Amino acid sequence: MSQFDLIKDIAKFGLENDQDRLLSVLNELIEYSKKTKKINFALQLQSILKEGLRQNTSSLTKVGSDSYYNRLEDKEFNDLILEKLTSDYTLNNLVANENVKEELALFIKEHKSSDILRKFDLPISNKILLHGPSGCGKTLASYAIAGELKKMMIVVNLGAIVSSKLGETSKNLAKIFRKATAENCIVFIDEFDSLGKVRDYSQDHGEMKRVVNTMLQLFDYLPQDSILIAATNQKDMLDDALLRRFDVNLKLDLPNERQIGELINLTLKNGHFNLPDKSTIKSITKEALGLSYFSIQKTLITAIKRSIFEDVENQVLRVPVVDVKVWKSLITTEKIALHIP
Ligand SMILES: Nc1ncnc2c1ncn2[C@@H]1O[C@H](COP(=O)(O)OP(=O)(O)O)[C@@H](O)[C@H]1O
Ligand SMILES: [Mg+2]
């Protein structure tokens, strides 16, 4: 079935209020999008679907039945997480220095080859901290780990957990870890530093200690085949004892010239779009130093789109060539906006 057929079915079942068939076609479209490498679209659809299911409480369940309790528990749990997803990303989607890529590859290997390590009674690294400036691939790296290991990943909404009632934070954390280990999911805690905010939310100084202690315990009792990924751009905010518990500690930094070059190639999809010539690439790479991968990619994609529009308007038929002047001015604007000299 083509994606247009799927979209027609979605319209039809949606209008007919036929929820079961609507869900099944949506899932088909998600699978189809993954297969055709429209990963972002697939992830977005997945989260729309999940949000829809979360809000849909219209159908009746018998009070006291198993499904009633499951639903209560699921609803409570869903409020604590942002997403539950699978990913098709791999390490090839990530640009980083050799050391970081090697460490990530080894971390993944430990889980792919856990049998061997177990045979020799060796521990498996399963707690990894990703830190560094925003837009340099912490979230992307976590998707790549999930994608390489083909595991579900739970993205934890730390903000929601921490701002809840006094004493609840520890309970919430424990709940998430229990569920994740039961379902063999990766736990991804983004903005890990917001644990430090417990201090601001609560008058009780014991609360912060309690939360950190809970976290330490959860870390210590995390089963070997479970994985915890934490990300932060404020590593300094983290408690030392907590920091020490991570098996792997990686900094994802701003790109240097070579890495900017790699990012450009990746974004130009190895020839789907072109840059005019080598010397312009060199000069614009220098221009882009200081910006994050995210900013560089964003400005390049905008420039690509504008160049395509230009070609269409001028009725030029060719592999789109990025208008470097446009890209340069976008980079300058971005730098000004972010106060980068
Ligand atoms: N190291 C990188 N390699 C390739 N693309 C990157 C990298 N870092 C960021 N990007 C691009 O920017 C987007 C946002 O990055 P993200 O992983 O969310 O950054 P962070 O979590 O560190 O703030 C990514 O989805 C990707 O498109
Ligand atoms: Mg992120």
Query: What is the percent of helical residues?
Result: 55-70%
What would you say the CATH architecture of the largest domain is?
3-Layer(aba) Sandwich
Give the count of structural domains. 3
Average pLDDT value? 86
Bound molecules: adenosine-5'-diphosphate, magnesium ion
Number of helical stretches of at least 4 residues: 16
Can you put this structure into words, describing what you see?
This protein is an alpha/beta fold and 341 residues long. Helix content is 57%, strand content 8%. It has helices spanning 3-15, 19-35, 39-55, 66-78, 98-112, 114-119, 138-149, 158-162, 168-182, 198-201, 205-220, 240-244, 257-267, 278-288, 293-313, 324-337, and strands at residues 81-85, 127-131, 153-156, 186-189, 227-232, 248-251. It is globular. The relative contact order is 0.09. The model has no long low-confidence stretch (mean pLDDT 86). The structure holds adenosine-5'-diphosphate and magnesium ion (MG). The site of magnesium ion has 4 residues, from α7.
